[in-house]
């Protein structure tokens, strides 16, 4: 009860009530998941010879039992016009295909078991890399070749009005169905007040400066729990970091009814 009260005092005034409820009722699930995450980072860092792949951008690709889609996602990441990146594939215990591209920028690891918590898997990828910025891509989505260049250029650009440079930017997304049909283009300027009640925040078009706040929720969020860890991370990050939108579609986002992490019946 005391822990719950401290949590409420800490977050009241900026967290929506539904997310405060999640943190109070589900925070106990984060303890074993954090222990698992720490153990996996230690184990996998050893497999990487103790050195974290380093570049200006670290791209974390999350995958689970979609080898064909994974290869396409990796190709779209390695095919970026912005070349100074490393790509870290994190498999959620489903097993990696044996024919991944032979590229020195690519590393791939598998968790010791399937956990089904996207945030923890992404955190492993973040922690196994070193970079100025971090980008995210799921295995069933694709980046256009200029995605990273568009985002990094905006992150490095001095605003004309003298405002601080953004810490994170997200581009527009083309949301497509499995047969390739364009469903819509999601392009919403960042507004933190609007984001409290509208789900337009997603990590796939996001490129963010690496800071201690750039980590995903470790709460176990089943498909019935809203909001997802994607929204929670970006919304929390934006509390102390400047986030901007670039209204250029650079991501093809699959509205996938077979998604392992997202229930589209609820969207």
- Poorly predicted ranges: 7-13, 260-267
**Count of discrete alpha- or pi-helical segments spanning 4 or more residues:** 8
Helix content: 25-40%
CATH architecture: Alpha-Beta Complex
Can you put this structure into words, describing what you see?
The protein is an alpha/beta fold and 267 residues long. The protein has one domain (2-266): Spore Coat Polysaccharide Biosynthesis Protein SpsA, Chain A. The chain has helices at 2-11, 17-26, 30-47, 67-78, 118-127, 147-156, 192-195, 229-237; strands at 54-63, 85-91, 106-110, 130-138, 142-143, 168-176, 182-186, 206-209, 243-254. Strands 1, 2, 3, 4, 5, 6, 7, 8 and 9 form a nine-stranded mixed β-sheet that branches.
Descriptive tags:
single chain; 267 residues; alpha/beta; Spore Coat Polysaccharide Biosynthesis Protein SpsA, Chain A; 9-stranded mixed sheet; 8 helices; disordered C terminus
Question: What is the fold's blueprint, element by element?
Answer:
Blueprint (H helix, E strand, L loop, with lengths): L1 H10 L5 H10 L3 H18 L6 E10 L3 H12 L6 E7 L14 E5 L7 H10 L2 E9 L3 E2 L3 H10 L11 E9 L5 E5 L5 H4 L10 E4 L19 H9 L5 E12 L13
Parallel strand pairs: 1-2, 1-4, 2-3, 6-9
Antiparallel strand pairs: 4-8, 5-9, 6-7, 6-8
Helix pairs in contact: 3-5
Give a brief rundown of this model.
This protein has 267 residues and is α/β, with parallel strands linked by helices. It is built from 8 helices and 9 strands.
